[in-house]
Every structure is written in structure tokens, then in C-alpha cells.
Amino acid sequence: MTDTPITPSEGIQVRHLAELDAGRFLIQHCAACGKHIYFPREVCPHCGSEALALVEPQGTGTVYAVTTVSRKADAGGDLNVSLIDLDEGVRLMSRVANLKPDAVKIGQRVKARVQLADGHGLVVFDALEGGAA
After folding, report:
1. Domain range for residue 85?
2. Whole-structure pTM value
3. Is 103 exposed, middle or buried (0-12, 13-18, 19+ CB in 10 A)?
4. What pLDDT does 133 receive?
């Protein structure tokens, strides 16, 4: 895990988005209580410390919940929206990109990656087994 200190002159949201746009997915780690945090914040929600650093997670996790959003074919077709529990203990909303929406299952193991589109990064996940949309 590599620690990248956060300088007070940079807003954490701006820094987080810039890292995503550069293709890097980082979460925060609190040096005071040892817990990971996502979505980035200025202070630790667990202990109130400001001793936070951006770190690279393993990126592996488990689908906690999933739903399918129905869309017309000309709007891109159906889309899954998933809650993913990273192994570091944080939960985030994203989607499993390498499976059809109805193939995503609770308990499925996934791996994060940054998908770049129009110069902006977005964290998506790929199923570790049974992938291929």
C-alpha cells in the first residue's frame, strides 16, 4: 500500500477526482484508528482525526446488493447498480461492467478498475469468475 499525503491546500474531492481522471482509484486510510474510508472526507468519520492519506486498495470486494435499471436500447440498454464491499471494509456504489445486468449476483467476488471516458475516471468492477458481457 502506498501512502500519498493530502495537503490542506487541496480539497479532498478535487484531489480524489483528479486521481480518478488519471486512472488511479484511491481510498483513504486513517493513521489514528487504522480504518479505511470511502468516499473521501476531510476528517475520519470513525475517530475525528485529520491524519488521513490516500492509499491504493487491493480493489477486490464482494457484491453486497444489486438491482437492474431498465433503459431503452437506444439509451444503452439495461444497467446494473451494485453496492460493493471492498475487502478494506468500505462500501461503494458502482456497477459490474463485464456481466449482463441479470448475471450479477449478491456474494459475487469482483475487482475494481478505473474506466476512462471523455477524460473522466469512474470506478467500475469486473466479476472475478464468470465474466464476459
Report:
1. 60-127
2. 0.84
3. middle
4. 46
